[in-house]
Structure prediction request, 519 residues.
Amino acid sequence: MIEFTEVTKRYGNQDALRDVNFTIDSGEFVFLVGPSGAGKSTIMKLIYREERATEGMVTVDGIDVSTLKDSQVPLLRRRLGVVFQDFKLLPRHTAFDNVAYVLRALGTPPNEVRRRVIGALKVVGLIDKVDAVPEELSGGEQQRVGIARAIVNGPNLVIADEPTGNLDPQSSEEIMNLLLQINQRGTTVLISTHNLGLVEQMQKRVIAIESSQIVADGVFQSNAS
Amino acid sequence: MFSLSSFFNAFAKDLRIGQRIIIETFGGFRRSGWMNLIILVTMTSILSIFGALTLLTLDSQHLVDKWGSQVAISVYLKDSANLADMEPDLRDLPHVIKAESIPKAEAWQAYLQDQPDVPDIPNPLPDTVRLEIDSPANVLDIIKLAKEMPDVEEVRYPYEFLQQIRQLAQGVSIFGMLFTVFLGVLTLFIISNTLSLLIQARRQEIEILRMMGVSNWYIRMPFLLQGSLYGLTGALFAYTPVASFQFFVRSVLSFFQWDTGGQNLYFVVGLMVIIGTLVGGIGATNSIKKYLNV
Prediction:
């Protein structure tokens, strides 16, 4: 699903990533951990082609992202679902409209929009909050709307950049379990996080990055930290 | 293989996207609030000035063309000359297509009829031959040849007056162009800044659209349409002041019995629509390029 081969990303003279290699197979659930500035966000940006690798090759869902033309980037992103730390919900739109917004922009027929949005809101357990605007929702619920929006298009891969960064421990755990459920339906999930407690609890594959390089890759063991 | 239903599905999808773009565009106008008013007033004023100056240029050009094409000159003869002898000589000059004798007695009678208050004085007018020439380009040559004839006193052609009108037309045209460019840059600046504010306010929304794979043109289009619609609406609003200006100019000219002719107003309004829409679109493109990373 995702393959990084000898990837280096440089901003000026500064290496954000150096000779990074890893592969994530279809259907995997993977954490990307590391301190701030280690290169986690750069990896995420290279996957959804917000940035281009300075050297090496990045492949996502069979597409060579490193050489992808700008005009083709939207087509790549339609195959991904992105979850943000700050939710990025439209404040004056209801939960339904937030999830439906992109489908409408893509020209999806109205009955299809309704079917898919209701389906996604059911998956995240917010079917009773369809008409609520973000300020009427808790942080955890807002992130659920963000996740519903990420999965509404039926992506093969969901990437979540610090999805629990703004949440309390209980909501964080609920969000992780929700992402796990989405993974169990066959979607590949990649999560970047600082929250080692949750990572330990989930017992899933972890790619650890430090000073622009991968320093560990494997299933998290409680005595390995 | 081509399938009719897939064609109709794709068409229906494009229509829905078009409908969303229009909704987004009008949402943009709603969000711009009172800035709409400032832009429209500026745009209308600028296009009105542009339209008025263009009309003035075209009308004065029309006068120059009209008078310039009247290739008739008046040859005044000396008192000693014989009109009957001179007329064939003048008619035989190259490029002359017609010669008409106007005896001084006849001219004086006509003058007296026109101006009955003239005191009883001897006829001061000379015998005149009026020559029509095939092309304005040959007028100066004929004047030179006629002046070389011994019995010719003077040759009249409204050359200097035409030159003055021509210079005025050029002056209006150059001033109009410079002024329009200056105002155009001002409009670009205002439209560009308003749309930049709008883009900043919608940054979150745009970010989401980009991340979810909405095409760049879908994101750009509402801003581009909004900018162009400012120009188009400004041009339509400018119709009334420009038409009033034309009415005023025509009234003044018709007072002097000068016909400006032509249907310049429609041409100028068409030009205003095109230029207004382009300037609005360019202003929008400018802010899209600057603030929208798509």
Observations:
- The beta strands of chain A are 2-11, 14-24, 29-33, 55-60, 63-64, 80-83, 157-161, 188-193, 205-210, 213-219.
- Chain A touches chain B through 25 residues (CB under 8 Å).
- The helical segments of chain A are 40-47, 73-77, 95-105, 110-123, 139-151, 169-184, 196-202.
- The first strand of chain A starts at residue 2 and ends at 11.
